[in-house]
Amino acid sequence: NGFVIVQRVKEIESVSGVSAQLATQVFYTYGELQVAGNLAGVNIIDEDKLFNLKSKIVEGNLEGLMAGNNGVLIGVGLAKKLNIRVGDKITMIVPTGASALVKIIGI
Predict the structure, then answer these.
(1) Is the pLDDT confidence value at 63 over 90?
(2) Which partner from 17, 24, 59, 93 sits 20 to 30 angstroms from 78, CA to CA?
């Protein structure tokens, strides 16, 4: 169980922080544009503690991400390729064919 492993690693004195991650490949789709990429699901609070995400966000904020279940942070490169901004909605398609409409919360 991944949660058990994370908890055990957190208990190691020399470990300063842990952030579990679930990752998959996806297609990001906006209108006629489609870009292949990766998606990582994380505990955003743990991730921010380790990597100071708030300082890296150029548009939007983490608070919006924590307020709902259908928000995502994306990189500047993907935002430029799809010509999207905070507030836009994109479709993510995973290898099984399942898709989800998500709102851009931060870049």
Answers:
(1) no
(2) 17
